Amino acid sequence: MLAVFIIACPICIAALFGFARHVDPLTGQFRR
User: Fold this and answer.
1) Higher pLDDT, 27 or 25
2) In terms of residue numbers, what domain contains 9?
3) Which residues contact 24 (CB under 8 A, 6 or more apart)?
């Protein structure tokens, strides 16, 4: 279970950073 968390955690963090980078936090719209 701990191994799954260690593997999934960086993927989740990378996904959150990628999502925040492509979405404008003020308007909530995608930006290129």
Assistant:
1) 27
2) 1-32
3) 30, 31
